[in-house]
Amino acid sequence: xxxxxxxxxxxxxxxxxxxxxxxxxxxxxxxxxxxxxxxxxxxxxxxxxxxxxxxxxxxxxxxxxxxxxxxxxxxxxxxxxxxxxxxxxxxxxxxxxxxxxxxxxxxxxxxxxxxxxxxxxxxxxxxxxxxxxxxxxxxxxxxxxxxxxxxxxxxxxxxxxxxxxxxxxxxxxxxxxxxxxxxxxxxxxxxxxxxxx
Length: 197
Description:
The structure is a single chain. Helices cover 38% and strands 21% of the residues. Helix 5 (99-111) packs across helix 7. It folds into 2 domains: 1-36; 37-196, Muramoyl-pentapeptide Carboxypeptidase, domain 2 (2-Layer Sandwich), CATH 3.30.1380. It is of the alpha+beta class.
């Protein structure tokens, strides 16, 4: 397995015992960072033993209401069901969804005191779909967090889009895009930033 970039022969690097240990340590840190909420997350999340999510995929008509977190752990069956309902509806490809994205959606619904299902405009996007969408619109990022399962475009019936955006911005837990002409907001677990599309 050759890497023609700066790293040289990736195969030899991976076979090195020191490199394997360093990679394992790095992966452990990455996993810990992915599942350990920051103080901002901890402050935003409820102390309850369970967290629920309610979704309606506008493209497939599928609905899901699930307790995705229970007694301090994410529920694997629920997380799988979420990845299915948030799949790329263009080609039915699925991808693991960032658990913090569900936490963000959970907290957002609580912030606006609306337990209606979130209407999903876009969840996971396969690289192929994202590339096609980017060709059609410069508003679609080349390296979209949708491709990593870290972004959702949504609306929430019963909550005005302006109020939903305001609530998402107030959480300061990731990116927030506002698309009033298409009637949705974008939320993601990336850096704190905001824009209008």
